[in-house]
Specification:
globular, 74 residues, Arc Repressor Mutant, subunit A, single chain
């Protein structure tokens, strides 16, 4: 998935953290909800502005960031 069209970074919004489509919902927020056991459907019910593609973009962003971190350490 190409997350670059969905994940935005704006210096004045949420301290420059990666957010979803310019909203004030960060990638970290979504990853925390998933890690705590919330389902995708529960997240979507709590945040009606989000889509399933937004959640998947967060996962793709995190995977790409992890891949880059591991490659930088090698």
């Amino acid at each position: 998935m190409d997350y670059r069209m969905r994940i935005t970074i704006e210096p004045g919004k949420r301290g420059g953290k990666p957010c979803i489509r310019g909203l004030r919902i960060t990638v970290y927020d979504i990853l925390e909800y998933l890690a705590s056991g919330m389902s995708e459907q529960e997240i979507l019910a709590d945040f009606p502005d989000l889509t399933i593609e937004d959640i998947r973009a967060c996962l793709a962003f995190a995977a790409d960031r992890e891949r880059r971190l591991v490659c930088a350490c090698l």
